[in-house]
Amino acid sequence: AASGIVGAERVVDGLVLSLLLFVALQVAEPLPVLPDRIGDLTVPVSVVPSAAYTVLAMFAAAFVAMGVFYWRREWMRGVLHRILGAVSPRLADLAAGVLERFASGLGFLPQTRYSLPFLGITLAYWGINTVSVWLLVWGAGIDTLTLAQGAAVLGVLALGFLAPNVPGFFGTFQLSLYAGLAMYLAPETVVGPGAAAVFLMYVLQMCTSVVCAAVALALEARVPPTALP
Question: Which of 73, 71, 96, 70 is nearest to 83 (CA)?
Fold first, then answer.
């Protein structure tokens, strides 16, 4: 049940973020010719828009699949058994069980007293992150980046977090930010003030995580442990 809730949260969160990136790319169109290098690194920035549309389609499909499985469980089980059962009945049962557990996490959506605050907080969270990216880039000396472009940069950064990564997303974090900035800024700006913005953003992100963890540990230490039955 816990995995289902976490899975549903990730799908909804990813869908909202993908929609944010999609809208940002429509409002703030990237440069006509996107670079294939950032400094000395080969980074094909031209694939970013198509990757964004692909990810949006993936999250939309995952959300629809979970929704169908939640509301039409028996029908979806039959579809899975017809498709996967021809290869392996055990595989069909396994896939159905996994989807059913994940779909159970969508149980909060029909309950507006939970779903509306969740969606509101999700939108507020990514909105604050967008403004934060825009302000930090502006503070690093780049005053030409618009708020819509900042939203696109944030969306590209989130794309880099989709797949499992090294601890702290080190490397992926920087490359994703560089790719996002390179969609709108000249190469010399990306490796100049943009490098300062990327460095500061990573350091601040790590510091925020460490501080939050330290506060949580301190508060947890003050709470007496619950006696086990």
Answer: 96
